[in-house]
Amino acid sequence: MTPDIEFPEGFIWGAATASYQVEGAAREDGRGVSIWDTFARTPGKVADGHTGDVACDHYHRYPEDVRLMADLGLDVYRFSTAWPRVVPDGSGPANPRGLDFYERLVDELLGAGITPYVTLYHWDLPQNLEDRGGWASRDTAYYFADYAAAVHARLSDRVSTWTTLNEPWVSAFLGYGSGVHAPGVTDASAAFKAAHHLLLAHGLAAQNLTGTLALTLNMAPVVTPAQILDAGIALSAEDAGAVGLVDALLNRQFLDPALKGVYPREVLEIVERHGGLDHIRDGDLEIICQPIDLLGINYYNPCVVQASAGAVAPLAWPGADGVDFVSIEGPQTAMGWPIIPSGLSRLLVRLSRDYPDVGLLVTENGAAFHDKVVGDRVPDTDRVSYLDGHLRACHEAIEAGADLRGYLVWSLFDNFEWAEGYHQRFGIVRIDYATQRRLPKDSALWYRDVIQRNGIE
Ligand code: PNW
């Protein structure tokens, strides 16, 4: 039987996690300390003092976890390598035992017919480098390239798809701007330096990597409340200005340097007023703009804004004065994030139009809900409908011409949700943290069927 909605042949289906969120084993086999260890162990930073010390214990349970992935029929597992496992002090000698773990994981995946997609940085910067300035320091970009080369040297005979960074906007503006993420700094000028040095790190690392190269960004269509209801509505000059400014800060600050070798004019003007432009050196944009094969898209919801004369920029949005970040009515996830699948099709179509030379891959999409266990099931119908809606949006974008190659759900497991600790559950597989028992939710069983039919019923 042909499903209602069918994806192109060869469409890639998978699921994603990140090292600090699932591995645990924080003190094993020579792993160094990361900024997330320090941050989570600092009282008041993470809900209820939760840390990633144990997390899903994936470091020890990976064989069972890979069997589960195979049962679900995943083509791809996207995970990240922890810099402090591989280079405990951030720079200097590699730790072979850290690399051994990733080699074991990759071999297990390949043995199960699952393709590993490696992300080299998903936020766990070695603490020793933070002590030397972190991402606000240019040296960190060069150390990242060395670390990336060490992972690549060990795994490139088995891994062919490499992502340098996950969501540099979040690293820079939640890590050094609002400070709600590690390292918890609140300094706009440090945040813009971090953003640039992260881009530089991407370019430097990409120069030494072979295979299929990717950069993953958190992106969102930036819209006014009226545009959610009517995409074609005309905006006032003020609202158009607010939309353009936030789009420049969130999306084009990273897209344009990486894919076109230029910074948006609006961003340069803002950076000039927040610490200056000296850290952007001649030649940097040529390094940053390396040819890449895939743009990874992490989409959760649109960014809704409108002009508001007196509004002061929130700490995560330096330069966005006169912009009101609007919370809108309507269905939400447990994170309080609005559920708007059309935002994903809009984003994909726009990216394919504005950046036509790069393939697109949804590297994260998913939702936290207040799941309940009923007997031996988790009837998470809200998550099934979230995923169903967003997959239909992907299909719509493909029909409209977007070059979308695949979809990876966030997340395979419930895991350490950063400042929210273990309270927010994004998994399609439930983790009972007391016993570490894995229980596929109804959404996992539904996803297995979607993968099997390459479509939605
Ligand atoms: C992403 N925001 O994080 C990350 O890549 C994941 O590690 C994370 O678990 C997932 O989304 C769910 O949160 C984000 O505030 C965190 O805009 C915050 C934001 C965006 C993405």
UniProtKB/TrEMBL annotation:
Reaction it catalyzes: Hydrolysis of terminal, non-reducing beta-D-glucosyl residues with release of beta-D-glucose
UniProt KW keywords: Carbohydrate metabolism, Cellulose degradation, Glycosidase, Hydrolase, Polysaccharide degradation
First-level EC class: hydrolase
UniProt-annotated catalytic positions: E167 (proton donor), E364 (nucleophile)
Alphabetized SUPFAM superfamilies for the sequence: (Trans)glycosidases
BP terms from Gene Ontology: cellulose catabolic process
Entry keyword annotation includes NADP: no
Residues the record lists as binding substrate: Q21, H122, N166, Y300, W410, E417, W418
GO cellular component terms listed in the entry, alphabetical order: cytosol
Record NCBIfam families: BGL (TIGR03356)
Protein name from the UniProt record: Beta-glucosidase
Organism: Herbidospora galbida
Organism lineage string: Bacteria, Bacillati, Actinomycetota, Actinomycetes, Streptosporangiales
